[in-house]
C-alpha cells in the first residue's frame, strides 16, 4: 500500500468515527464501556493484553484494528455486541473474535470481555 492509499484509508477511518456520532448522543444511559482483550497472532508466541475505554465524549464507533501490518481494512467490530448489550441492559459479555480483514496470513484473534457501566 503506497502513501496515498494509506492516507485515503486514514481519512475514511476518521470519517467513519465522525459519522458514528458520540456515545452521549446515542447512549445517554451509558457512563462508560471497557473492552479488555488478549490478542493472539500466528507465529507470535506471547499474547498481548489491551484495554480500550469509551466515555460519553467518545465516538460511538466500537471497532479495534488488527495487529497485523499486512491486514487491509480488518479489525474487530464490537458494534453489534455493544448495541445488543445496551438494548438488553447487560453489564458484561465475553467471547472470541477473529480479524475480519484480508489478505494477511498472520491475522490476530482476540478473547474479549466487554463491561458497561450505566448512569
Give the biggest sheet.
4 strands, antiparallel
Q: Rg from C-alpha positions?
A: 15 Å
- What topology, given as strand order, has the largest sheet? 2-1-6-5
Q: Mean pLDDT, nearest integer? A: 85
| Classification by helices and strands | alpha+beta
Number of strands: 6
Portion in helices: 25-40%
* Count, helices: 3
Count up the domains.
Answer: 1
Distance between the termini: 44 Å
Tell me the fraction of residues in β-strands, as a range. 35-45%
Q: Globular, elongated, flat, extended or rod-shaped: what is the shape?
A: flat
Question: Which parts are unreliable, with pLDDT below 50 for 5 consecutive residues or more?
Answer: none
Spell the H/E element sequence: HHEEEEHEE
Please render the helix and strand layout as text:
Elements (H helix, E strand, L loop, with lengths): L2 H18 L2 H4 L3 E12 L2 E11 L8 E2 L11 E2 L1 H9 L4 E7 L9 E11 L1
Antiparallel strand pairs: 1-2, 1-6, 3-4, 5-6
Amino acid at each position: 500500500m503506497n502513501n496515498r492509499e494509506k492516507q485515503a484509508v486514514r481519512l475514511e477511518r476518521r470519517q467513519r468515527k465522525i459519522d458514528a456520532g458520540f456515545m452521549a448522543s446515542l447512549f445517554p444511559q451509558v457512563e462508560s464501556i471497557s473492552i479488555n482483550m488478549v490478542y493472539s497472532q500466528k507465529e507470535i508466541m506471547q499474547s498481548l493484553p489491551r484495554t480500550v475505554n469509551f466515555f460519553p465524549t467518545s465516538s460511538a464507533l466500537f471497532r479495534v484494528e488488527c495487529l497485523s501490518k499486512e491486514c487491509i481494512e480488518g479489525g474487530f467490530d464490537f458494534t453489534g455486541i455493544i448495541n445488543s448489550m445496551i438494548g438488553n441492559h447487560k453489564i458484561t459479555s465475553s467471547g472470541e473474535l477473529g480479524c475480519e480483514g484480508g489478505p494477511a496470513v498472520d491475522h490476530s484473534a482476540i478473547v474479549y470481555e466487554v463491561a458497561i457501566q450505566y448512569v
